């Protein structure tokens, strides 16, 4: 028998609202959240006011729709960066890849309009680029960034692209939006992304998606190296292993 609302502690009802917003691919209306969190609208309205005051949810500007707030986003980031068992598992997988490939491997996700490094295992070479967990890089000129951008739901991708600054980092950086959208379409078709000296001259990278149980790409797994040591064609040979 379904439990009545009054049988569920208020804290768990609030968690259900946060879970619904975190799982949504776009801001949610009160009616949508009422259905997804299984809460009556009056109760939900009061709860959203409380959560908004704490920075856990926020209303989308100019609309009546709700989205995760900055405090909830920070909680998610810190959980991904510092979660003990999950982090140990990620590092073990990356370490095995580094042993097999001989180059630095990393695990990243999107954080707003940037790529956030969740984990990284360096190869034992004197020539390498150091980016610790917690570092951020642009989305439009990195393999992981372009991959995660390409795999977003169309509405989310369009919204992010509309406010994205396509700044130039090297002569190979894509700075034209139609050209970037064509690149993202190619990435969706082939299932992986490359960075051919687009972020840093002399550095190449390939990335593949990491999917959640919903089959939505939530992170990227990538290998990167100086082009003098691993040209892009050789990097692509590691796609099956990734």
Summarize the structure.
The chain is of the alpha+beta class and 242 residues long. Helix content is 42%, strand content 20%.
Main sheet characteristics: 6 strands, antiparallel
User: Level of helix content?
Assistant: 40-55%
Large-scale geometry: globular
Q: Which structural class should the secondary elements be placed in?
A: alpha+beta
What's the layout of helices and strands?
Layout (H helix, E strand, L loop, with lengths): L9 H14 L6 H8 L3 H13 L3 E3 L6 E3 L1 H13 L1 H18 L2 E8 L2 E8 L14 E3 L4 H8 L3 H9 L14 H14 L2 E4 L6 E9 L5 E10 L5 H5 L6
Give a written overview of the molecule.
The protein has 242 residues and is an alpha+beta fold. It has 9 helices and 8 strands. The chain has helices at 10-23, 30-37, 41-53, 70-82, 84-101, 143-150, 154-162, 177-190, 232-236, and strands at residues 57-59, 66-68, 104-111, 114-121, 136-138, 193-196, 203-211, 217-226. It has a 6-stranded antiparallel sheet, with helices on both faces. The longest helix has 18 residues, at 84-101. The chain starts with 9 loop residues before the first helix and ends in a 6-residue tail after the last helix.
Main features:
242 residues; 6-stranded antiparallel β-sheet; two-stranded antiparallel sheet; globular
């Amino acid at each position: 028998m379904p439990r009545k609302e009054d049988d569920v502690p208020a804290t768990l009802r609030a968690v259900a609202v946060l879970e619904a917003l975190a799982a949504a691919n776009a801001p949610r209306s009160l009616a949508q959240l009422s259905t997804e969190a299984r809460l009556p609208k009056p109760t939900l309205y009061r709860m959203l006011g409380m959560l908004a005051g704490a920075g856990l949810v926020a209303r989308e500007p100019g609309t009546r729709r709700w989205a995760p707030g900055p405090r909830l986003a920070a909680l998610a980031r810190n959980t991904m960066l510092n979660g003990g068992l999950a982090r140990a598992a990620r590092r073990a997988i990356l370490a095995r890849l580094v042993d097999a490939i001989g180059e630095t491997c990393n695990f990243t996700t999107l954080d707003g309009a940037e790529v956030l490094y969740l984990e990284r295992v360096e190869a034992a070479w004197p020539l390498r680029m150091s980016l610790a967990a917690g570092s951020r890089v642009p989305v439009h000129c990195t393999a992981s960034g372009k991959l995660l951008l390409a795999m977003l739901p169309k509405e989310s991708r369009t919204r992010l692209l509309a406010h994205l600054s396509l700044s130039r980092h090297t002569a190979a950086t894509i700075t034209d939006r139609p050209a970037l959208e064509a690149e993202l379409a190619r990435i969706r078709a082939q299932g992986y992304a490359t960075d051919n000296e687009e972020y840093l001259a002399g550095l190449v990278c390939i990335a593949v998606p990491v999917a959640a149980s919903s089959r939505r790409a939530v992170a990227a797994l990538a290998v990167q190296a100086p082009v003098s040591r691993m040209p892009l064609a050789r990097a692509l040979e590691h796609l099956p292993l990734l």
